[in-house]
Design a protein that fits this description.
heterodimer; A: alpha/beta; 18 strands; 39% helix; B: alpha+beta; Glutaredoxin; 2 domains; 52% helix; elongated
Chain lengths: 616, 199
Amino acid sequence: MPYRTHLLVCAGTGCVSCGAFPLKEALVTEIARRGLGNEVLVVATGCNGFCERGPIVMVHPEGIFYQRLKVEDVPFLVEEHLIKGRPVQKFMYVPPAEEKPVPKMADIEFFKHQRLIVLRNRGRIDPERVEEYIAYDGYDGMAKALTGMTAEGILAEVAASGLRGRGGAGFLTGKKWELCRREAATPKYLICNGDEGDPGAFMDRSFLEADPHAVLEGMVIGAKAIGAAKGFIYIRDEYPLAVKRMGIAIEQARELGLLGTDILGTGFDFDLEIVRGAGAFVSGEETALIASIEGQRAFPRQRPPYPAQHGLWGKPTVINNVETWANIPSIIRRGAAWFAGLGTETSKGTKIFSLVGKINNTGLVEVPMGIRLRDIIYGIGGGIPGGREFKAIQIGGPSGGCIPKEHLDLPVDYESLTQAGAMMGSGGMIVMDEDTCMVDIALYFLRFTQEESCGKCAPCRIGTRQMAEILARISGGEGSDEDLEKLERLARVVKQGSLCGLGQTAPNPVLSTLRYFRDEYRAHITDRSCPALVCKNLITFFIEPEKCIGCLLCLKNCPVAAIAGERKKVHVIDQAACIKCGACFNVCPAKVRAVSKYTGEKGRTLAGRVPGGVET
Amino acid sequence: MIQKRATAGLGPKGSFQACVALRSDSSRKMARNEEPEMSPELSLVQLIVTKHHRQKRSLIQILQDIQGRCQWISPETLDEVARELDIPPAHVYSVATFYKSFSLSPRGRHICTVCMGTACHVRGGAAVLEHFERTLGIKAGETSPDKEYTLERVNCLGACALAPLAVVDGRYYVQMNEIKANQVLETVKASKKSQQGEP
C-alpha cells in the first residue's frame, strides 16, 4: 500500500553521532501510537551532507526540511505536521543572520546551488535496500553496458566524457582504462580507492554510506570495458558504517544477479571483495594501496610501470577513486555528450567537496567544475560565522595549499587550483578565518606528513621532519630570517626527490602559505608575535580588570589552578603557571568577554617579561 | 596457549579473559556458518586464520580480526600468526608495526579517541586532546597504569562538519570542548560504578 508521507531520516555518520537512530525509533513508535502506521513510512537514508545540522529529517513529498531534532520533539512534530498538517517552523533551518525559517530543502542556500550527479540519491534512498536504488534508475547504466555495448564502445564513451580521476591528480579515466585494456596479461583487476586519508575530507565516507550500489555499478561497467573478473573495494578502517553498508550492497547485488557469475544473464562474470584499510595515510597512494591489498606494508614503489600495466600481483590493474567510479553509471546512462557539457574546457562534470572549518553551513557539497570559490564560500557556505573575516581556504589536504581572499574569484578546476599553489586533491575545503594562524596550519600539515611518511625514501622521511622542526621553531618564536630560505630550499628538494605523491606534494602547505602569507611568518620571526593569536609561546592570556565581574567561572575551569580571585572580585591569571590552554577564554560568558589574548610587545609586558621573551 | 596468556596478561577482568570467553562463542559461530568440520579446541588465531582460508595475503585482515577481538595483539600472537601462515615472524611484525590500527600493547577498558583532522584542528581539537591528557594523566597513545583508559588520536573520522570530535567507547561526541569532555568522562566513570554495583 502506498504511503502518503515518507519521513527520510538521515543516517550518515554525522547525524548518527547526533542521535539519528533513537530519533528514528521515536518517530516510528509515535507514528504507530497515533495510528498513522499505514500512512507514514519512516526511512533511514544516507548522508545528506548538511551534517552540522543533524539529525536531519526530510518530509517527502513536500520537501520540508527539519533539522537538529531531538527525541522529545517527536510527539509535537507528529501532532502538528502529520496530524494537523501544519509544518513546524521552530524545527526548520534559519539562515545565518536572518530570522525567517526556510521550510523547503530545495530553497535552502546550502542545497540550492548544488548540482547533484554523483550524490543524486543522497538523502532520498535507503542505502541498505537495493530496490530503492533500482527505482531511481539504478543499474540502468550497467544493463545498457552489458547488453547493448561492446567493451570498445564503453571505453569510447568514458573517454569522450572527459572524466578525470577524482582522487587528486586528475588523470583521464578513459586513458587509464585504455592502457589497462591493451595489456595482454590476465587476469586483470579493478580497485576502488576508498582510503580517504586526507584529514578534513569525508566525501568517500559520506558517499559509500549513502549510495554504495553506484560504486558497484560503476565497477561492473569498468570490468566489462577492461576485461576484469575481480575487483577490490579498499575502505578506511575508520569508516565502520561505510564498510557495513558496502557489505550489504555487495550481498544484495549478488542475490539479484547483479554481481558474481552470469550478471543479468549476459554470461559476464565479475565479483567484488571489500578490503579494510589499517590506518596508514600513505596507503591512499595507488602503488602503496596495492601493496596493502597484497598483505604487505603500504610502501609505494617507483612508477612506471604504472598499475595499469603492472599492478596487483603484477597484473594489469585499474585503480580509481570512489567518486570516479560513481560517475560512471550516469555517464553510460545519459551519454558522454551530456557529461562533457558540464564543467569547463579541461575539467568536466561535477566535483564533491567537503566544506568545513570556519564557515556557517558546513557539510558535503557537489558543484559543477568551474564554479568560483566565492560562490562556494558565500553562496553555499553562507559566509564566515561570528562576523569574522575570511582569511584563506585550504584545498587538497596535506598535498594542497591555502588560497587567500585575493583569489576568491578563482574557478575551481584542476589547472587553476594547481596554478594557485593548491590541488584538487580528493576535495577537502577547509575555510579559515582571521583566528587561524598560517604558520600553525603549515606546521600542522608538516607534522602530519612527517608522521605519515612511510620512510622508504630519504627526501620525504628526513625532509618533512626538518621542515616540521623549522616550522615549530618559528611558531615558538625562535625562528630566524634564514629559516624561511631554508624552508624553501628544503621544499624544493622534497618535492623533486620524493618517490611518491605523498612526498612530492608534502611541501605544498608550506610553499603556499609562504607565498601568500609571508608577512605572517615574518611577524613570528622579527616581532615574535602571532597576529592570529594562536601560537602558544607568543601569546598571553589576560583578564581585563575593568570587565571582569568576578563570576569564578574561569577560576573553576582552569586546569592548573593558575587563576586567583573571589566572588565579585577581579580575577588574576598567574602568568608563570598559565599553560595557555584557553579554557578561561572559552568559558568567559559572551556578554562579559573579560579574557583577552595579547601577542608581541604588549603580551610580553602583560606577562611580566622583558622584550625578547626572556623571563624577568 | 590462550590459557597461558590469560594468566600472564591482564588479571581477572583483562581483555584476554574476554578472548577466552569469545573463543567458544566464535567457534560455535564459525562451526555453524563456515567451517562445519572445525574443532572447538582451536585457538583464536587458528580460528581466524582458517576463516581467511590461510591466505598469506589476508595477513592484515587477520590481524584486524584479532585486534577486534582482543583490543591488542601480543608478541606471542604475532608468532602464532607467522607459524599458522608459514611466513617469517619479521614480516608479520613489520606489517603489525606499520599500520596504526594495530596496538602491540594492552589497551584500557575505555578507549578515548580524539580527532586531529584539519577541521577539528582549526576549531580547537588540540585543546580537547590536551584536556583529555591532563584529566586522564596520560599522553596520547598511552594507557593508564590501572588499565582503565587508553587515549588515542586519529587523523580524521570523517565527521568534519561537527568538529571537534571525540569518540569514547565507540560513541561519537560532537562539537567538543573542555566542559563537554568532563561530562563525557563523568558518564564513563558513573557507568563503571553502576556496573561494579551489580551483583
